[in-house]
Amino acid sequence: MGDNGANTKFRRVAFVTVGTTCFDALVRAVDSQTVKQELFTKGYTHLLIQMGRGLYIPTKSEGGDGSLAVDYFTFSSSIADHLRSASLVISHAGSGSIFETLQLGKPLIVVVNEDLMDNHQSELAEELAESKHLYYARPQTLNQTVADMDLKSLVPYSPGDATPVAKIINRFLSFPDD
Amino acid sequence: MDKGNACPYASMASSVTFCCAIFAITLVIIRIFYVIYWGSRPHRTRAPQPVSTLIVLGSGGHTAEMLNLLSVLQKDRFTPRFYIAAATDNMSLQKARLLENSLADENGVQTSETAQFMQIYRSREVGQSYITSVWTTLIAMMHALWLMMKIRPQVILCNGPGTCIPLCAIAFLFKVLGIRWSSIFYVESIARVRRLSLSGLLLYKLRMADQLFVQWPQLQRKYPRATYVGRLM
């Protein structure tokens, strides 16, 4: 998946996205020394954080000599561009972010926000993790997930298909099949 | 005492009213069962005309899934199309407009001939207090009623969240009252793997959706009247 393992690019970005929410626990976790060290060991050179409405501000860093370059922003109209140029995506559990990343074929770690009241979001992430389309973590276990992950073992996601629904709707309304 | 004379008339009058009420309620219940029974059965007429279609756009991921479904539906059958999104959601209608404009360009027609875009008040915004939401729910219901009287769709496509509930309830009421027969299709979001969303559950339990689609097999096992259709995303 992605350009994992290939040394074609000097720049290997781990992109973190929290969507429109605030998810300080995730931003704090990726900004921790242990996670940054694990990411660096795995060969990532840059850490870019989309922090949304969060209050916790990560520490910016220029990188070089044995450490990650760290940068952050709150919102961007073109998350898609950041996803496209990333080598690894660490995302909140929103279905929009998940499918956008999977359809770009990028390795993905989904971190579930345990502070959310209605936490149905973890259902989707767990299900997709079970079929090995992504890794699933909690903020406290992210460093372990990064350390243990083997991106080659991830199964590429094949996009879904709406034609079965369309067919049933057509039949129901007694439109002839094409 | 004249109590003995007055009482039979009074009790007769009240029992007549009572019987009438029972009769009316029975009729309504029979009609509701009729609507539920025939609503969930495929149409039998051949070669139907194009159907006016209401598409309720949820927001974010919901809208993305709905537009995926629309991209494979035959536009000459599902026409004209009416799009409704929450008044606080600016992105969804914009995305629908983009889709409709590219369709119109292909066929050399104006978008305004084939599609209309509307916004609806939400009954409750995130974080709104429950006391004020009684009032806003009333306004939202009236607004939904007004929109539905204008559109009177034959087909309703929705996939949550709550925006679609007042519209579906009114569509169901129209069916019971014989104002307009419509088919309500609900596609549960791909994010729901183990349990239906509140909107999905309401439409399922109250049997307001004529067809309820789910995208995961384990959901279909839990809710047997739902139809498993595989992933849309």
UniProtKB/TrEMBL annotation, chain A:
Keywords: Transferase
Origin superkingdom: Eukaryota
GO biological process: dolichol-linked oligosaccharide biosynthetic process
GO molecular-function terms, A-Z: hexosyltransferase activity
Domain Glycosyl transferase family 28 C-terminal residue range list: 14-170
Coiled-coil region(s): none
Any GO CC annotation of this UniProt entry: UDP-N-acetylglucosamine transferase complex
Keyword Transferase tagged: yes
Name of the protein described by the UniProt record: UDP-N-acetylglucosamine transferase subunit ALG13-like protein
Species: Quillaja saponaria
Phylogenetic classification of the source organism: Eukaryota, Viridiplantae, Streptophyta, Embryophyta, Tracheophyta
From TrEMBL, chain B:
Gene Ontology MF annotations: N-acetylglucosaminyldiphosphodolichol N-acetylglucosaminyltransferase activity
Keyword Transmembrane helix: yes
PANTHER family: GLYCOSYL TRANSFERASE-RELATED, UDP-N-ACETYLGLUCOSAMINE TRANSFERASE SUBUNIT ALG14 HOMOLOG
Family: Belongs to the ALG14 family.
Membrane topology: Single-pass membrane protein
Subcellular location, record wording: Endoplasmic reticulum membrane
Stated name of the protein: UDP-N-acetylglucosamine transferase subunit ALG14
Any single Gene Ontology cellular-component annotation: UDP-N-acetylglucosamine transferase complex
Keywords: Endoplasmic reticulum, Membrane, Transferase, Transmembrane, Transmembrane helix
Segments passing through the bilayer: 12-37, 130-148, 154-174
Record-level GO BP terms: dolichol-linked oligosaccharide biosynthetic process
Organism taxonomic ancestry: Eukaryota, Viridiplantae, Streptophyta, Embryophyta, Tracheophyta
Species assigned in the record: Quillaja saponaria
Segment forming the signal sequence: none
